[in-house]
Design brief:
The protein is an alpha/beta fold. The chain has a six-stranded parallel sheet with strand order 1-4-3-2-5-6, with helices on both faces. Helix 9 (about 205-215) runs antiparallel to helix 10. Strand 3, helix 3 (about 75-85) and strand 4 form a beta-alpha-beta unit. The protein has ten helices and nine strands. Bound molecules: pantoate. The site of pantoate (PAF) has 10 residues, from strand 2 and helix 6.
Length: about 280
């Protein structure tokens, strides 16, 4: 695996592959890789000749009181895992390389509407940060495919919309959420949990799975179901941010014509903000 940290070195390598007619799949990450990321990389390997990964803890998507400084950074083990997964190229830029004009001065990409609901309501500016960095990375890597985890379901919807609206020639693919044996969705932030909190954490997935089951069995009183779910989370020690049933296509309010629904939840447990979703 080759590792580069400048845009010019990245562009040179990508240009060579493009010239020889090879296809590219791209997996953007913030590092601290776990088994969930490996699923994304395996999918990338399946669909294209060359796999490019990036590691960049993107300051633009963290709010002023969020965990940008504490976000786990594990470059050595990340590089080992990427090499084992057969990744061809790692792009690991510094902040200045991605935001040469500074974080605030550069052009930003905003996907209106869906960026301001659910997690976006709790984390103003978060999805502008995500859309901006992903648009820049797409322009640099110029992949045929880009793979994102379905755990961050709203992020996936935002990126799909951005790609469509900006006519970017990238196929955005989702990969199923990778879970621990007890159902907890894998996330770098799980390591913020104390052993006691870790024991409680799977309740998030159990609760939204129960809501999804009730909907499958015919219940349509979504607001009551979500109130019940939020109360169960609160009783278990979470501080629920939201539990919502939404249209899986655009995250609009669920309605009778919705082809597929998704139950989404976010809740604080100690230092960790956990998110999860289950499709119905
Ligand atoms: O999901 C992530 O790790 C990040 O939000 C992403 C897509 C790499 C953008 O910084």
């Amino acid at each position: 695996m080759q590792t580069v940290d400048t845009r010019s070195a990245l562009r040179d390598l990508v240009a060579q592959w493009r010239l020889s007619g090879e296809t590219l799949a791209f997996v953007p990450t913030m590092g601290n890789l776990h088994a969930g990321h490996l699923t994304l990389l395996a999918k990338a390997r399946e669909v294209a000749d060359r796999v490019v990964a990036s590691i960049f803890v993107n300051p633009l998507q963290f709010g002023p009181f969020e965990d940008y400084d504490q976000y786990p950074r594990t470059p050595d083990s990340d590089e080992r895992m990427l090499t084992e997964m057969g990744v061809d190229l790692l792009f690991a830029p510094r902040v200045k390389e991605m935001y040469p004009l500074g974080r605030e001065q550069g052009t930003k990409v905003e996907v209106p509407g869906i960026s301001d609901i659910l997690c976006g309501m709790q984390r103003p500016g978060h999805f502008v940060g995500v859309a901006t960095v992903v648009a820049k990375l797409f322009n640099l890597v110029q992949p045929d495919y880009a793979i994102f985890g379905e755990k961050d379901f709203q992020q996936l919807v935002v990126i799909r919309r951005m790609t469509l609206d900006l006519c970017l020639p990238v196929k955005v693919l989702g990969a199923p959420t990778h879970r621990e044996a007890d159902g907890l969705a894998m996330s770098s932030r799980n390591q913020y949990l104390t052993p006691q909190e870790r024991a409680v954490a799977p309740t998030l997935h159990q609760t939204i799975s129960d809501v999804a089951r009730d909907i499958r069995e015919g219940r349509s009183d979504f607001a009551d179901l979500c109130d019940w779910a939020a109360a169960r989370l609160a009783e278990s020690g979470f501080r629920p941010h939201y539990v919502e049933v939404r249209d899986a296509d655009d995250l609009g309010k669920a309605h009778s014509d919705s082809e597929e629904l998704v139950v989404l939840a976010a809740a604080q447990l100690g230092r960790a903000r956990l998110i999860d979703n289950v499709r119905v």
